[in-house]
Amino acid sequence: MIRNCIKCLSRDIPKEQEEAASLLYELSKFQPLCERIGSESGAILVLVGVASSDTNNVITIEKAEKTLQNLESYDVNVREMAVNGRLQPLLKRLVEGMH
Length: 99
Prior knowledge:
Blueprint: H1 2-10, H2 14-28, H3 31-39, H4 43-51, H5 58-71, H6 75-83, H7 88-97
């Protein structure tokens, strides 16, 4: 199911993207699924792309952003985000570790 959501999110069909982003956000509210979502090949790359896109669908962007925030609870996901250009979670962890 997660793999299918990622595929739908990467397609250029606005309603499909919105529904996939909403479902991934709901799933990411459960900690065990955060790890599973992040481990899906290409998931973080697609979510980062959607969250930083200039699409007119604000709901899709918002849900992708919130999903990424939920995924930040796992170190592996934070590293993957950094690899894909989303550095803020990694920088936040580095600063917190210095205190």
